[in-house]
Structure formats: C-alpha cells, structure tokens
Design a protein that fits this description.
Length: 250
C-alpha cells in the first residue's frame, strides 16, 4: 500500500511512522510533506498513491488550501488534533477522520476500508456517510507525553488541570505529575469537552472532578482549590465567575 504522509510535527510524524511500520500488511511511505507548497507540487505530478494520511494545520496554513489547487485523486485520511474541521474535510476526498495521537487499531481498520474500496476512483457515498456518522463532534481523548527515549499517551480523564507557567503549557495529572505540551490554552480550550473542562482564567483550565472546593475571598473573587494541588489556588477572573456557577450546576 503506497502512502503519502502530510505532517509538519516531527513527533507526530515519528509516531505515525512507528504505527505504520507495525501494520499487519505491507505499507510503503512514498513521501513526507510539511508545507502547502510541497503538497501542491507533489500532487501535480499525479503520483501513484493508495492513500494520503494528512494533518490539517501545517507550518504555512491549512492543507485544504493546497488540496483546492490540485485534483486529489487518492482517498484521504485526516489525522489531526482539531475536530472542528471534520465536515470541511469530507469535501477533499476524505474517507475518515482520526484524532491525534492515532491508535494503531483505528488506523489499520481505516486502511483496510480503503483497500476494500480501491475499485472506486473516489470514495463512495456510503463511506462518507459512515465516517460522518462515526465522527460527529469529538473532543480530544489523549495527550502524547514525551519521554527521554520516546513517548506515551495519557487519557484526558487522567488530567486534573492544565496551566501556563513561564511561557510553557503544563498538563497536570490527578496523581500530581505533570508534563509540557506544545499547545496553547486557547487551542486546548477548543479541543476539550466543555462539559468536563472549564477555562478559569488566562492561566488555567480545570477538570470538574478535580475541584476540591470553591471559596469566595474577601474581595468577592472565587478561588478553586484543586485535589491534585491543594496549595495551589486558582483565582477565577471576574468575568468568568457567573459562568463557573452555571457550569458547576449543569
């Protein structure tokens, strides 16, 4: 199976490459592209491809801009951290849409589906509708945590809170451990389930089941005490206080 990978994040590419190398069928990676211009130039040569595995956000914009300039003949599987693009993705020959970090069994199932429908020049309506039904509104499910000799994934359910400290975004787990991630709080706020996570202020996002209690201070500001960090009080900005009450009561 000839695969083109469009991915600008080295860690994500390495993880995807590792998953593909462990696939239960033969896969040949015929190219690795990181920018829109590279994508346009590569696809204009009409290479023989069985499938394209593509991120959506690239170094110089979104991959849709590149796909709109060329004929995308191979089926596309989008692998990204941003589910906000799901419906738009199906305009560009998409057969499925997976969230990072990709799980091998999920990707293998999609690739088997692609192999089974290779008699079609474009994905069938059934493939598109199945994918859209299976991937409605989805929120981030995992984080990739870097280690000295590799990386591992943690489930979002293990997260206590996320904070910025000295310009770094830290994911703090319920056991008190923490790790940096290469995403801003603004980006993460869009990716996390708002029924579970609350943006308290510019520095903190907290999980509902990680809140020990909420107190009102003398200046009438709300302060959240976290189970994983009881000495670390999170002051809720005034414009978020009413939203916090409504969120806790929902």
């Amino acid at each position: 199976m000839r695969v083109l990978i469009i991915e600008d994040e080295p860690l994500s590419y390495a993880q995807l490459q590792q998953v593909l190398e462990a696939a239960p069928f033969e896969i040949e990676i015929v190219g690795h592209l990181e920018m829109k211009g590279e994508v346009v130039e590569f696809l204009r040569n009409r290479p023989a491809l069985d499938v394209i595995l593509s991120d959506i956000r690239l170094l110089d914009g979104v991959v849709f801009d590149a796909f709109s300039e060329v004929d995308v003949e191979a089926p596309v599987v989008f692998i990204t951290a941003f589910d906000m693009y799901a419906l738009r993705a199906f305009k560009y020959n998409a057969v499925d849409y997976l969230l990072k970090p990709v799980i091998g069994s999920e990707l293998y199932a999609v690739l088997h589906k692609v192999k089974a429908h290779q008699i079609y020049s474009r994905p069938s309506d059934k493939l598109l509708w199945d994918a859209m039904r299976n991937h409605g509104t989805r929120f981030r499910q995992r984080f990739v945590i870097n280690e000295k000799d590799g990386f591992h994934a943690v489930m979002v359910s293990e997260v206590s809170h996320i904070k910025t400290e000295k310009g770094c975004t830290l994911v703090v787990l319920k056991d008190g451990s923490f790790a940096p991630v290469d995403l801003s709080l603004d980006e993460l706020e869009k990716q996390l389930d708002p029924a579970v996570f609350f943006r308290a202020n510019r520095q903190y996002i907290v999980a509902v089941d990680s809140i020990a209690d909420i107190k009102t201070s003398l200046d009438r500001k709300l302060k959240i005490r976290l189970k994983a960090a009881p000495s670390e009080l999170v002051v809720v900005s005034r414009d978020r206080s009413q939203a916090l009450r409504q969120w806790m009561d929902s």
